[in-house]
TrEMBL record:
Protein name listed in UniProt: DUF4259 domain-containing protein
Source organism per UniProt: Puniceicoccus vermicola
Pfam families tied to this protein: DUF4259
InterPro entries per record: DUF4259 (IPR025355)
Length: 152
């Protein structure tokens, strides 16, 4: 049975992402966690003959990976969570583009609004604790000088 807890790094998906990130830390790996892959589904031959256009399909973000990458951004930027694992205390400084925070916040909002991860937590007794953890991450990212919230 895998790890499952309301703090970000109490979950297998987040820990796996962190291990992969720590093998070769880069902003690219962080940004990949915030990006959903989009593909186009081609209609059948009959559909094309009838004028059907390809349908856009966007994969859902991996919630645990989004939250792990968000914690890495917050940690690199000087706003770590108290519950972070030891490995994050020695994370190398990586230059992050200003839009990294914007992308992190957008991905976190998507997770909170409508995601498989949120659905799983809503069925748990710890939903409110998980939601508080995610909202804390969002608030720490909003403290960063280049976040959309700090520009208001």
């Amino acid at each position: 049975m895998g790890a499952w807890g309301f703090n970000t790094f109490e979950n297998d998906g987040a820990l796996d992402w962190l291990d992969d990130f720590l093998d070769a830390p880069s902003e690219k790996k962080i940004l990949e966690a915030f990006s959903a892959e989009t593909t186009y589904i081609q209609p059948s031959l009959m559909g094309r003959l009838m004028g059907k256009k390809p349908e856009k399909f966007t994969e859902e973000l991996e919630g645990d990976e989004v939250l792990a990458a968000g914690e890495v951004v917050a940690t690199i930027s000087g706003h770590p969570a108290n519950s972070n694992p030891e490995e994050l205390k020695t994370i190398p400084k990586i230059h992050l583009a200003p839009d990294t925070t914007t992308r992190a916040l957008a991905a976190i909002e998507a997770i909170l609004a409508n995601s498989n991860l949120k659905d799983c937590w809503e069925e748990s007794d710890d939903f409110e604790r998980w939601k508080t953890t995610v909202e804390d991450l969002r608030e720490r990212l909003e403290l960063l000088p280049w976040s959309p919230a700090s520009r208001k």
